[in-house]
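Bench log, entry 3. Co-assembly request; chain sequences pasted below exactly as received.
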Amino acid sequence: MASNTAGVCTTFRKDLLNGSHAFGAQAAGSARTITTRDVFALALYRVTSGLGTSVTSYGATGETTSSGYTAGGATCATTDPAASGNTAYWTPSASISWTNVTMTGSNAVDQALLYNSSSTAKLAIAQFLLGTVDVGQAPSAGTFTLTMPTNDQTTGLIRIT
Amino acid sequence: MSEVKLVHTQLGELPESDLQFLLSEKDVGDTITVSREWKYIGNDPAHQQHLGEVVRRDVWVTMKIGVSLAGSAEL
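Structure output for the full assembly:
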């Protein structure tokens, strides 16, 4: 079984150059005017899903299932990206919680996939490991909460240096 | 008369007195995980096959750090 891994998806590098993501709004006078930022989401994957950074888009294969959890995961509350020094960064502005979920046994999760929910292809951005790889988290009839890192140039969820 | 506090579990709503509460924290890799578990310790005959089992688990995963596209010459 291939273990899940963490990292920036390769496609995200290309998609950035293609202008496929709008993490924030952008005023007129920039290269193009963007009035609304895209919607981003986090989906949860089973220990056995074997997702690596070559994944190009969100897909339901390997995604966990549970009452209280909808395929595709949950939308991130966001703010505009920021920059400090040579680093630009972006982090969802709130934790994400799923209530009354049971993700035990084969549905235990050890990875979250961040993707652009606004894009037709649901473009993949990055994956994050959740605790011990290959063991996973197994909420049972309870709440599963993902708390975001501090939104700054050293710990932000997505950083470009 | 004191009010019985009920906890939502896989077995339904159970009195808090029938449950053993456990809290654990693990710092692994880029995450801190806090788990809150309730084990069934009651004597209801209908639930005896679940004695000692975890009947509810809440999980909080805190991501300490995200991911970086690093290297000024190799975006």
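Chain B has one domain: 6-63. Chain B has no helices and six strands.
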